[in-house]
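Interim report, section 4.2 (structural modelling).
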Amino acid sequence: MKILIGLDIGGTNTELAWVDLFGNILKKINYKTVQFSKAEQLVSVVGKAILEGNKNFISDEIIGLGIGAPNGNYYKGTIEFAPNLGWEGIIPLSQMFEDRIQLTTKLTNDANAAAYAEMLYGGAKKMSNFLVVTLGTGLGSGIVVNKQMLYGSTGFAGELGHTIVENNGRLCGCGRKGCLETYASATGIIKTIHQFLESSKQESSLRAIEKIESKDIYIAAQNGDECALKAIQYTGNILGKQLADYVALYSPEAIFIAGGLANAHSLLIPATKNAMEENMLKIFKNTVELFPSELLDQNAGLLGAAAMMMKRNN
Amino acid sequence: MKILIGLDIGGTNTELAWVDLFGNILKKINYKTVQFSKAEQLVSVVGKAILEGNKNFISDEIIGLGIGAPNGNYYKGTIEFAPNLGWEGIIPLSQMFEDRIQLTTKLTNDANAAAYAEMLYGGAKKMSNFLVVTLGTGLGSGIVVNKQMLYGSTGFAGELGHTIVENNGRLCGCGRKGCLETYASATGIIKTIHQFLESSKQESSLRAIEKIESKDIYIAAQNGDECALKAIQYTGNILGKQLADYVALYSPEAIFIAGGLANAHSLLIPATKNAMEENMLKIFKNTVELFPSELLDQNAGLLGAAAMMMKRNN
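Predicted structure of the assembly:
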């Protein structure tokens, strides 16, 4: 039995797991990321755990270690300027792990990991061309073309969240204006609901909440709150319209919506699909499926980091 | 010596050529497309010419026939609803030629052919990820990812010309509004100059021309005509801004500008490059070269149709 090791480094939690080719997690260890104030500490603690854990498996069946991390660069195996992790500069994390554990190690960013997960364990198993959009604090995307992850010439390709949907629109964290992620993300929909609440006097259960989170909006919408429903519709409209442009470029078989905000999929996906079809170039109409990720309630980042070790990338 | 046969079917001219692997045209025949009122006639006349012409070459060195044509579908080998050719319905042109000449035949659209040409004979010989934008009557694009032409799930991927640059902008021939090609194309720049001339009283040599063509604008600009210069700047601004979004998705090494309007490259490319860099996400700044096609004055469509026979696509 082949074994993959996955390591998912997040702003809050870091998870390590041994996974089989069917996506079963055979052994898992959880860490708080904050305990690793330097990358060296993480490599030391997690590296030791890997060497210990490997004793449970026949070593020549362990294919390698896949790491998913914010600002991860696949080509260089580095984490570059990741403010969420509190680590400075450019860190050659793959190399550090290879030196420590003597196993092939690859690294990619969170959204690409989600796409690897969908490809090996989720709804994209038989697909050659698809997109995974992760709606979290921001909007990430993993693009698969001809069964290969798209990294482009820099290793940073796939920044759908930073394509412009509105000239001179909302200010984005990247310093530019009108990026898709300022509308279609947890942060974006919270901004939208505040705009709606401030610009109207419509009753809403959300007015009673001091600090509205995206899941409050989803819960209110499920209970029929008009403002919340309108915010989801608005988000889906903008996302769907931009996905129509995406389709004109890539013509994928399917688009998967993942990440925290995707839990609102029963409302968000129909709104997005309608806007996408309405804005689509004729030759692409009804050629693209829009699905919630099949791994929504699972460890997609962790599974994807592991899955990367099974995939040809270039 | 390996020989490729290329057939470039255009709205006005159709060209047939035998080409070597260095892009030398060994023999060429020209037709007026209008003489082929049906596809069957074209297959009959051109097919006969191919069988005759092949006698000049050792037959087992002839690799096959590549066809470039508007509305060509690579997967199906069909031309679908091509109003420019006056042929109706879906025509299985590849199959018709294979039956006639007993040689492997592939078919693609004009913009993809231009990208094959750049890849085999032009500036993209050593590149894995690049884009060719053809600025003609419309805006076509050929996208190469990991050395493969991007066709997507339908065979129609790469419609950069039909991504939206201005919500509710200019009406496009596709029925939607604000498509890039309504601004960045020969048709687009002519619309732009008319807007400029009508909305101002600025002197311009173009006012004396009854029916302004894109090359008139370029010539006027070279002679220092302010209106013409402004129109090229405006076109470059919009094209460059959209290319910045394209880069965020694909991260190519280079973008090549081809087609008739590209002859204005000494003015158009700097304007486009400035706008692209200015609007680019930080991690991509200064990672992408912008070049005029290396095959500008050559038979890029014809060479590209031939070149397609040398390239792996999926």
